[in-house]
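pasting for ref
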Amino acid sequence: MDALYCYGLFRGHSDGYIAYPLGMKGVVVGEGDSYSEALHDVESAIRFHSEIFGEEVFDPDPDTPVLEAFVAEAGV
């Protein structure tokens, strides 16, 4: 399989880092004590997810990439 790329959102907090890839179908999350550990973990999770469910888990139309992504706080 050729290399596939996607963007991700990383959150750092007192317990470490959590990584959320953007533009994928399904739920994929990585975590680690450092940014690089979270990056390695989410790369592994993305690889596993795409091997199990196929490359169609990535953005359904590669000709229309994600143009904007927002981080917002929502109160519930």
